[in-house]
Write a structure and sequence with these properties.
It is a single chain. Among the domains are: 130 residues, no CATH class; 63 residues; 48 residues, no CATH class. It is built from 12 helices and 14 strands. Helices cover 40% and strands 23% of the residues. The strands form 4 sheets. The protein has a 6-stranded mixed sheet with strand order 4-5-11-8-7-6. Strands 1-2-3 form a 3-stranded antiparallel sheet. The protein is of the alpha+beta class. It is extended and about 110 Å long. Strand 4, helix 2 and strand 5 form a beta-alpha-beta unit. The longest helix has 31 residues. The model has no long low-confidence stretch (mean pLDDT 87).
């Protein structure tokens, strides 16, 4: 799922609503777009939803739309944790659909002993996985541990922890110097912890009232929470009902979600899907359709380049080949007829190699007359 915003009020489009903006433009109306891609990244379909539609409410419509178009194939649905709810999980299971899903961070606590164990399998340097069968054997859980993600989360936790600690010390010192309303101090503490929620669980804070009616702030750090935070940094968990695959294969399938994320980045940059300048609903739908078809063409050209041994990114190929010029030479005659000759510039050696690898030929000069 992604969102793209409108320039203008879009009063003629009922789908244009304000909601969570992934483009950081909450001041603008938007629509949400769900994209379905294959494991190789080829787009299969898309749906447009109202801008205030939450991700978890779109899963059933997307799944049923794809099945109505392509049938109940033996596909595997891969979704991140933002698309997962108890209702969606039940929907997938009741229909006999296979899935690989992200899970909330809170579920990791049930696998603390497995996190401490040493039998991890390395997928590639810096990334390890561990397969944990669920009771009953109908599902498996895949524990994943990323060194790069661990460093990122450590830096974030340290920054938030330091911010909370410095602010609490200043508040406690202020309460000791002058009379403060306990209710207002408690509200200030709540705002502080809310803004730094990633490290808020490390602190236990109490606001008391002394005999003079002054607020008294007491706080401490929770060592148990700190130990768990350090253990779980860089870790996340997947769940799947595909029980005949290895943990490495399940992780590789799940990480294919990056293909959809890359598609959205390409849509919003090269294919200019963002922002939307149209105001009427049918024109907005047409704009998104053109962007989707352009992305289909882009991925097709990417696979074409890949088969030619030129990588899977056609952007550099386009930049090189667009330097080949097409020129019309017009020759007027005494009879009033103009002879037009269409010529193509001679490709450089590098361009000629690219054309040869792609199986393309420069068109021969074309001559035609104009009255």
């Amino acid at each position: 799922m992604t969102s793209t915003y409108f320039e203008g009020i879009a009063a003629a489009n009922p789908q244009a609503q304000r909601g969570y903006s992934r483009d950081h433009r909450p001041d603008c109306k938007q629509v949400n777009i769900a994209l379905v891609v294959s494991r190789s990244g080829l787009p299969l379909g898309y749906e447009v939803f109202a801008g205030n539609r939450s991700d978890v409410t779109t899963v059933k419509e997307i799944v049923e739309a794809m099945e109505s178009k392509y049938g109940h194939a033996n596909r595997i649905w891969v979704m991140d944790r933002g698309m997962v709810s108890a209702g969606n999980l039940e929907f997938l299971q009741q229909g006999g659909r296979r899935y690989i899903l992200g899970t909330p961070k809170s579920m990791l606590r049930s696998f603390e002993q497995q996190l401490l164990a040493s039998n991890w399998r390395e997928v590639h340097p810096g990334l390890e996985v561990k397969l944990c069968p669920a009771p009953g054997g109908e599902e498996v859980f895949i524990l994943c541990r990323s060194a790069q993600r661990q460093l990122k989360e450590q830096a974030m936790h340290q920054r938030f922890e330091q911010r909370i600690e410095e602010k609490l010390e200043a508040m406690a010192e202020g309460c000791g110097k002058r009379k403060r309303d306990p209710l207002k101090v408690a509200q200030q503490v709540g705002r502080l912890l809310g803004k730094n929620s990633r490290a808020a669980g490390l602190f236990q804070v109490e606001v008391e009232t002394d005999t003079r009616g002054w607020a008294h702030l007491r706080w401490s750090k929770l060592d148990e929470r700190r130990n768990w935070m350090k253990l779980s940094e860089g870790c996340y968990m997947l769940r799947s009902n595909v029980t005949d695959w290895s943990g490495e294969d399940l992780w590789h399938a799940y990480i294919q979600l990056t293909e959809a994320e890359e598609a959205f980045r390409l849509h919003k940059s090269d294919l200019v899907m963002r922002p939307i300048w149209h105001q009427k609903e049918h024109r907005v739908q047409a704009h998104i359709l053109v962007c989707f078809l352009a992305y289909v063409l882009w991925k097709t050209l990417g696979q074409w380049c890949q088969r030619a041994g030129l990588g899977d990114e056609p952007r550099k190929i386009f930049a090189e080949l667009q330097q080949i010029s097409l020129v019309d030479v017009v020759l007027p005659t005494r009879t009033g007829v103009s002879i037009r000759k269409r010529c193509v510039s001679r490709p450089t050696g590098h361009q000629a190699i690219l054309l040869q690898r792609l199986g393309l030929q420069i068109p021969a000069p074309i001559e035609f007359a104009e009255l």
